[in-house]
């Protein structure tokens, strides 16, 4: 069986997609998959994903309906608006929600590993995380990653 | 060719057509044929790649009235 390992380090809406898209697809293709969530990537393991957002600030590549000066992007509510617009667009274009992709991964036995060090560092409450995840460290990741066909850092 | 099951993947974008194809095939018997209709242009190459990697047979891949129609035979 082919294997794939992914390290997910980002917790924004845009950067949450690649790990879940690739993991769910690889699982559908018969890969054994593990995702190691560390630093901000841990946000993607929360039961409630509504805090996973996107900001236009310091994100010059984000396509905007109208050009927006940086000084406008810092105004209160801009991040909320950008997040709403992005979610609306994803839905309209038939792109799965993060919750949906994450559920597909879990159904397909993709193993989710939460970085214990980051959990301690940020004082995360494990009860905020979904069930069925494991906690581990770099060595645990290497044990699996060392035998994979594909290994990605997102 | 006889179609045993149909999957309407219209309006869905990558990777949903593949994920739903995989799910639809799960409870089918070997040799049965799944028809998938998609509006995602990317699914043309993705379905072929899915077949190549899973051993299921992509019997046909066609464009009909702007939609992509696939016949996938379960291995």
Give a short overview.
The complex is a heterodimer of chains A (154) and B (75). With 154 residues, chain A is an alpha/beta fold.
Please outline the major beta sheet of chain B.
Answer: 4 strands, mixed
CATH class of the domain at 3-52 and 97-153 in chain A: Alpha Beta
Global geometry of chain B: globular
Mean pLDDT of chain A: 95
Content of β-strand of chain B: 25-35%
Radius of gyration of chain A: 17 Å
Which residue ranges of chain B are poorly predicted, with pLDDT under 50 across at least 5 consecutive positions?
Answer: none
Q: Supply Rg of chain B.
A: 11 Å
Termini separation of chain A comes to: 23 Å
Compute the average pLDDT of chain B.
96
What proportion of the residues of chain B is helical, as a percent range?
A: 25-40%
Number of domains of chain B: 1
Topology:
The complex is a heterodimer of chains A (154) and B (75).
Chain A: E1 3-8, H1 13-28, E2 32-37, H2 70-73, H3 78-92, H4 98-107, E3 111-115, H5 116-121, E4 134-136, H6 138-145, E5 150-153
Parallel strand pairs in A: 1-2, 1-5, 2-3, 3-4
Chain B: E1 5-9, H1 16-26, E2 33-38, H2 43-54, E3 57-64, E4 67-73
Parallel strand pairs in B: 1-2
Antiparallel strand pairs in B: 2-4, 3-4
